[in-house]
Design goal:
3-stranded antiparallel β-sheet, 2 domains, 13 helices, alpha+beta, 8 strands, single chain, 380 residues, Cytochrome-c3 Hydrogenase, chain B
Length: 380
């Protein structure tokens, strides 16, 4: 909420104070900090302050072999690591002219949508907790753990999977895995009415989230907002549909939107996206058994792999928004330059600072969680 007639200079300076909300505060998303200048409980200005977590990924990547960076990039966004692996691999594949086998493309979609569900469940819990509804956090983390069980069965790792490599995936799905995914989807779909009753149709949450942190579609486009935050302003843009990659053009799904552009609209878009991810995964489960072939293309010795000189730009739709990698090779065994174009760099700094101005103190944490940023990506 932005009081139109609020003038900070009309109040004596003695009534103004500063408040540091740091990484130890439950209202901060991750190891981050937000420095506020307030008058009473109204925010005059906010300054995002990153650097409280692992950082400098882009520079670190220049000193590592192309294949070694697969273990580094997931840490740029811990709640949603799969898009980091896939997008980086897509960039290397484009530089090398590698054609990813069709089965590997389906396996990547399977992982991407599972990761999207896990990330949204995590976000629901954090957003709800900022309004005092902690039960949603407990539910979200517990249900997200079921997705992590699937990743552990597939990759051996619950949080960092290091499963997608240039050329495809490390291995195929284990026996019975698709049945396990289907059973998990059945359970999560059965839980949606509970989440609706607890959170999305709860009048407490609606009252707290409506008209908070609102932005127009024009503002969103001007600021470079993407993903659910953009779709919450009414624009149905999704890289999966509008610039298809992997096998998304073969899948049926809708792009949910809301019009209000506020914290409530952003939550409702993510809630609707859960159902679309369920829909996509059902199609993958049905189609994957009939798609044979290898799961990765042959690549040179990864410890002595000189990637052809050139530059490329690869992008996907992550749970946070449009994620892209700009990669440059000088023909060596390490990247000459890698730049991550991640949505959090904009959402957690410029957009957060603008939306916080004029808001009430109790809404700051909600605004931040509704934007759903990954703090390490800001200091990448």
């Amino acid at each position: 909420m932005r009081p139109e007639n609020y003038q900070a200079q009309s109040h004596p300076p003695s009534n103004e104070y500063e408040l540091f909300i740091g990484p130890n505060h439950p209202g901060i998303e991750g190891n981050y900090a937000f420095k506020l200048k307030l008058h009473g409980d109204v925010v005059l200005a906010g300054k995002a302050d990153g650097g409280y977590l692992h950082r400098g990924f882009e520079k670190l990547m220049e000193g590592r072999l192309w294949i070694q960076n697969i273990a580094l990039v997931p840490r740029i966004c811990v709640p949603d690591p799969v898009p980091m692996e896939v997008t980086y691999s897509m960039a290397v594949e484009d530089l090398c002219g590698l054609e990813v086998p069709e089965r590997a493309q389906w396996l990547r979609v399977l992982q991407l949508e599972l990761s999207r569900i896990a990330a949204h469940l995590f976000t629901f819990g954090g957003h709800a907790a900022t309004t005092g509804m902690y039960t949603t956090s407990y539910w979200g983390i517990a249900d997200r753990d079921l997705i992590l069980d699937l990743f552990e069965a597939l990759t051996g790792g619950r949080v960092y999977h290091i499963f997608n490599i240039p050329g495809g995936t490390r291995r195929d799905v284990p026996p019975g895995f698709l049945e396990q995914v289907s059973q998990t989807l059945d359970y999560l779909e059965s839980r949606l009415p509970d989440y609706d009753n607890l959170l999305f149709t709860n009048q407490v949450f609606i009252t707290r989230a409506k008209d908070v942190g609102a932005m127009t579609q024009e503002q969103a486009l001007e600021w470079g907002v993407t993903g659910p935050n953009l779709r919450a302003t009414g624009l149905a843009f999704d890289v999966r549909r509008d610039d298809p990659y992997l096998v998304y053009e073969q899948l049926e799904f809708d792009v949910p939107t809301e019009a209000a552009g506020d914290a409530w609209a952003r939550a409702m878009v993510r809630r609707a996206e859960l159902k679309q991810s369920f829909r996509i995964l059902r199609q993958v489960i049905e189609r994957l058994p009939s798609i044979g072939g290898p799961v990765r293309a042959p690549i040179p010795n990864p410890l002595a792999w000189n990637v052809p000189a050139g530059e490329t730009y690869a992008r996907v739709e992550s749970s946070k928004g449009e994620l892209a990698y700009y990669a440059v090779s000088n023909g060596g065994d390490k990247p000459y330059r890698v730049h991550v174009r991640g949505p959090s760099s904009m959402h957690a700094v410029q957009v957060l600072e603008w939306l916080a101005e004029g808001a009430r103190l109790e809404d700051v944490a909600q605004i931040m969680f509704s934007l759903d940023a990954c703090p390490p990506e800001v200091d990448r």
